[in-house]
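Go through the following before class.
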Amino acid sequence: MRITRHVRPSRRTALLGVTAAVGLSAAAVTLPGTAGAAPHHPIRPTIVLEHGAFADAASWDGVVARLQRAGYPVVSAANPLRGPATDAAYLRSVLDHVEGPVVLVGHSYGGTVISQAAAGLEDKVKALVYIAAFLPDAGESSIGLTNKFPGSTLGQAIESVNYSLPDGGQGADVYIKPEKFRSQFAADVPAAKAKLMAAGQRPVAAAALEEKSTEAAWKTIPSWSLVTTGDRNIPVAAQRYMSARAKARTTTIDASHAVSVSRPEAVTRIVEQAARTVR
């Protein structure tokens, strides 16, 4: 199934109602009297959201709900969390099934993934939005950028679990210890919600945090960044450094690393700012 853009609704005409009923895209419909004329409302970009380590697609739920109410088509993608090259290739396959312009949003390690996935896609990806995220340059890794500045306590909160695969492959996955999850990752999230997040956290391959990026799409695509001053995963100094280097339009907020959960309204505002620039 292909994901299509939607015209921003302004008048609920009978024609559009029939179109929806038969499963056609409203973007493909020419209203009477508008042939050859510019549309009254611009077509909105699809917002594609990429979660980071120790989270899953549900971490965007509050943002998705707000964007959908505002009329944006949204895709909350699953991130394999295996490494920048693998994860970027997977995300590009998702983008292949999205028609029209895209605003690509990454949280945490998801910023590394969108930076690589969007390289060379300037005709499709019109804006990059980094939410408490990495904005690596080619040759940089997530762990290297984290350790470049003081402030992260992640190393004290994680545990590694070794695994073996039937084909002989081996590796290690990294989790945040459940008892430390809230204080480390989601200090401003209600305790009951943080407990659920800890139980459902997606592990990241240890090698993914050490793998170096090979592309930096923020060099060619306009970027926005939300910096979180209560972050214990990515030091705020690192976030500011990367955002300034990328010349990203930057907003600072007092929030934890799990800002998409604790402050979805603030995250949505940044995404909409980027989306409004798409023509």
User: Anything to note?
Assistant: The domain at 40-279 is CATH 3.40.50.1820 (Rossmann fold). Confidence is low (pLDDT under 50) at residues 1-41. The first strand starts at residue 46 and ends at 50.
